[in-house]
Amino acid sequence: MVTLQEVTERRTARATSIAVRRTKKRARAQWWQPVVVLALLVGVWWLVATYYDKSKGLAFLVPYPHLVLQALAHDTTQATFNQELWQALGRSTTVALTGLAIAIVIGVAWAVVMSQAKWLERSLYPYAVVLQCVPILALVPLIGALFGYGFPSRVIVTVMIALFPMVSNTLFGLQSTDKGQRELFQLQGAGRGTRLAKLQLPAAMPSIFVGLRTSAGLSVIGAIVGDQFFQRGNPGLGVLIQVTASRLMGPELYATIIVASLLGVAVFLLFGLLGRLAVGRWYDFS
Questions:
Q1: Cβ distance 227 to 236 under 8 Å?
Q2: Which long-range contacts link 188-197 to residues 24+ away (Cβ below 8 Å)?
Q3: Is the torsion defined by CA of 113, 267, 261, 96 positive or negative?
Q4: Are 68 and 255 in contact (CB under 8 A)?
Q5: Is residue 190 exposed (0-12), middle (13-18) or buried (19+ Cβ within 10 Å)?
Q6: Are 159 and 232 a contacting pair, CB within 8 Å?
Q7: Residue 104's closest CA among 217, 216, 240?
Q8: What angle do CA 113, 115, 118 make, to 5 degrees?
Q9: How big is the chain by its Cα radius of gyration, in Å?
Q10: Three-state SS annotation for 80-140
Q11: CB 251 within 8 Å of CB 103
Q12: Which domains are seen in the chain, by residue range?
């Protein structure tokens, strides 16, 4: 005799199997769409490159796609470019991840402090907005004079650019906790630390990971921008972009820009994956 529990388990297993099959089907149906768009973009790129090459004789402005791939794949006529590209990628990655780690710590701590009282939020949040709005270029001479023109200054610029999304998203998540749950904790006599650790921070995790993804992309931008501002010390992708542009090295310039963009995409996707692993079981993190 089949019990009610067995019937329920079979229905649950069947529903789960159907959901998994639908998810895999959607994934198979969607992979080709970005590929088609990429093919169209490459085709347009080829036409524009042909126009500048044949009509204006300015092939270095828009090089052919295969020349850019050649610059990425192996050494070109500039025998040291390929080696310099990957070395610059490593340096920019180090700056971006270091600045991102510091921005995460400062941003979460800043938001936690502001979430404890409205007067703290009114006192501190305007300075987060000011930090986001200050032109970084205006602070370059001051940062260089105080911290030099090497790795620390690049990290500071990265932190300044990547910090605000962490502050704003974490604060939003901490403040969006269900009112009924907050009242339940208060009725049970839970203190601020208990509410923060067991209610607010877990509830804020989706918002925190949204901020992480945004800050991750901005950290790469900050690393490249800082590299272009402070051109002393070990050069990164920002310096390599300026060097190839000044020397009219079209394929090498485009190759460096593509590598910098792929670095930003990789860091963004990494934190998106971490977000799905952390909260994907109970929140639709997409």
A1: yes
A2: 192/116, 196/112, 196/115
A3: positive
A4: yes
A5: middle
A6: no
A7: 216
A8: 105
A9: 25
A10: CHHHHHHHHHHHHHHHHHHHHHHHHHHHHHHHHHHHCCHHHHHHHHHHHHHHHHCCHHHHH
A11: no
A12: 64-279 (1.10.3720.10)
For residues 275-285, give the mean pLDDT.
67
What CA–CA distance (Å, rounded) separates 252 from 167? 37
User: What are the C-alpha distances in Å from 50 to residues 43, 62, 207, 261, 285?
Assistant: 11, 9, 46, 24, 43
Closest CA to 215 of 153, 264, 257: 264
**DSSP-H helix ranges across the chain:** 4-30, 32-54, 65-73, 81-115, 118-133, 136-147, 151-175, 179-187, 192-195, 201-229, 237-246, 250-279
Percent of the chain with pLDDT strictly greater than 70 = 83
Do the Cβ atoms of 181 and 240 come closer than 8 Å?
A: no
> How does pLDDT run across 218-260, given as a tens digit for each residue?
999 988 988 888 877 677 888 888 888 888 888 888 888 899 9
Q: Establish how many alpha carbons lie within 13 A of residue 162's alpha carbon, considering only the half-sphere containing its beta carbon.
A: 38
Q: pTM, whole model, 2 decimals?
A: 0.79
**Diameter over CA atoms, the chain:** 84
Question: Are the C-beta atoms of residues 128 and 114 closer than 8 Å to each other?
Answer: no
The secondary structure of residue 197, as a DSSP letter, is I
Whole-number Å distance between alpha carbons of 163 and 129: 10
Task: Tell me which residue of 145, 172, 168, 278 sits closest to 218, measured CA to CA.
Answer: 168
